[in-house]
Amino acid sequence: MTRRLSFLSTILAWVVFHSCTVNNVTEDAAIGEIFSKHNVKGTFGMFDNSRGEFTIYDLERFRTVQSPGQTFHLFETLVALHTGKLTDDSSQVVSRDSSGSSMSIYQAFRLNSIPHFQALALNIGTDTLQRWVDSLKYGNKRLGRQLEQCWMNDTLKISADEQLGFMKRFYFRQHPFRESVQESVKKMMVVVNNSNYQLAYLQAAVPKGTSTLAWVIGWIEENRHVYPFVLNFDAPLRLDTDAEGKKLTEEILTHIGFFKGIM
Questions:
Q1: What is the tens place of the pLDDT at every residue in 162-215?
Q2: Do domains 1-67+159-263 and 69-156 have the same CATH topology?
Q3: Residues above pLDDT 90, as percent of the chain
Q4: Where along the chain do its domains lie?
């Protein structure tokens, strides 16, 4: 069952989605049934750029700030490439763990390697990273004293709403990074690219005591229309949240009408 939000909620949504022009906001309760089927609690939001419409499930949670986890790797990569700390996607990064392994930023990005992005954060430096966090108004803008841990230890927090605005601007190369940098990083996020659709996303898993906070942020492009989306959910600590996030993403997108060539 799908129901329209009240006029007051629509106005609140307009304030929340400050980066977009909202013509229509729909709360889709059926998305909650998908979360329930998987025995997790979560939120989902999608922006239909061609129509200026939002599909939302659980607006309150969508506006709640939480640790970005490895989704912050996207922000780091953009800053590093723009400032010259990395030359291109083949630039090598040496991890901060005992292995001291080296891999390209492309590999580290695709593997969501925390040790390599910890090293990258320290290479960028607190002052530079803080300037960019402030400039883009990323979440609560707090990096704290442990720079290499801030996106995993609840120092830095961001809402799903803010993540959606970030993704929308990123897709259309509207952030104050070089367009070539944004386009390069966009290609790093693509998971499926065929004649019917392009699906791109980045995942995160943040341990929270006995549970895990999981994120999936990205977009789907079909029939030359783009739809940025964000979901997060709480799951049991031992659950494979990457696999679960992939299933949830595909099921929610299928429910909305994707993968049929009609969107």
A1: 999 999 999 999 999 999 999 999 999 999 999 899 999 999 999 999 999 999
A2: yes
A3: 83
A4: 1-67+159-263, 69-156
* CATH superfamily placement of domain 1-67+159-263: DD-peptidase/beta-lactamase superfamily (3.40.710.10)
Is the separation of the CB atoms in 253 and 222 below 8 Å? Answer: no
Concatenated DSSP letters for 145-175?
S-GGGTTTTTSS-EEHHHHHHHHHHHHTT-S
Terminal CA-to-CA distance of the chain, rounded, Å? 20
pTM metric for this prediction: 0.90
Q: What dotted CATH number matches 69-156?
A: 3.40.710.10
Write down the H helix ranges in the chain: 7-16, 29-37, 59-62, 72-83, 105-111, 114-124, 126-135, 160-171, 179-189, 241-256
In the three-class reduction of DSSP (H, G, I as helix; E, B as strand; rest coil), residue 46 is classed as strand
Residue 154: both structure tokens together: 């609840």
Calculate mean pLDDT across residues 40-60: 93
Structure tokens at 95: 């991890």
Cα distances (angstroms) measured from residue 191 to each of 109, 110, 116, 219: 12, 9, 21, 10
Ramachandran bin of 142, using left for φ above 0, alpha for ψ from -120 to 50, beta for the remaining angles = beta
Answer for the pair 34, 181: CB distance below 8 angstroms, yes or no.
Answer: no
At 224, list the tokens.
């030359």
Model pLDDT for residues 104-154, shown as the tens digit of each residue: 999 999 999 999 999 999 999 999 999 999 999 999 999 999 999 999 999
Q: Give the Cα separation of 2 and 26 in Å (integer).
A: 7
